[in-house]
Amino acid sequence: MEQNEIYEIFKKSGALLEGHFLLTSGRHSNRYMQCAQVLKYPEYTEKLCKVIADAYRDSGVELVVGPAMGGILVAYEVAKQLGVPNIFAERENGKMVLRRNFSIEKGQKVLVVEDVVTTGGSVLEVINIVKEAGGDLVGAGVLVDRSNGTVDLGVQLVPVLSMEVVSYDAAECPMCKNGEGEPYKPGSRNLK
């Protein structure tokens, strides 16, 4: 898929929002990518996840894992296209863990996926779960890299769309300084 076609899918689905937003990281931004909006369309999900699946098709992936919430549908669709199982990690007492009898076998080739990364916090937590279990981390894939390639996960990262979403420390936010009201928090993860 061409980048302009991918960008149009995000715009058409209502996933790319503009306004004054509070990001999961606690920073403020004038743009927000709400991937839940694009993931509600199976045909878009299939097309976007194919980019990740194709990038890792010859890597011997045996399991795909993503963080709840955003990574669940991405993990499912990428795993479906690779013909392997998928699981997800979720927060328990503020820490990302595997529950529901999910496990990673020692030496199992694992791909970690997510809907959006900005700082990579949730993906790094899942990567640590894979490493602690003795899994063989193949790489990571995301629908949107909001860092425009600056986030370092310590492994290969395949983004479907890479874009710069400028964010500000709350104390330096120009929208706050201009009296543009309180930022809206469209994400679902509670801030630390």
Number of strands: 9
Q: Report on the biggest sheet.
A: 6 strands, mixed
The span between the termini is 37 Å
Rounded to the nearest angstrom, the radius of gyration is 17 Å
Query: Count of helices?
Result: 6
Mean pLDDT: 91
**General form:** globular
Low-confidence stretches: none
The portion of residues forming beta strands comes to 25-35%
The proportion of residues forming helix, as a percent range, comes to 25-40%
Provide the structure class.
alpha/beta
Largest sheet: spatial strand order? 5-4-3-6-7-8
**Order of SSEs, N→C?**
HEEHHEHEEEHEEEH
Describe the protein.
The chain has 192 residues and is of the alpha/beta class. 32% of the residues lie in helices and 29% in strands. The chain is built from six helices and nine strands. The protein has helices at residues 3-13, 35-39, 42-56, 70-82, 121-133, 174-177; strands at residues 16-22, 28-33, 63-67, 86-92, 95-98, 109-117, 136-145, 157-162, 167-168. The strands form two sheets. A six-stranded mixed β-sheet has the order 5-4-3-6-7-8, with helices on both faces. Strands 1-2-9 form a three-stranded antiparallel β-sheet. Strand 1 (16-22) and strand 2 (28-33) form a beta hairpin. Helix 3 (42-56) crosses helix 4. The longest helix has 15 residues, at 42-56. The N and C termini lie far apart (37 Å). The model has no long low-confidence stretch (mean pLDDT 91).
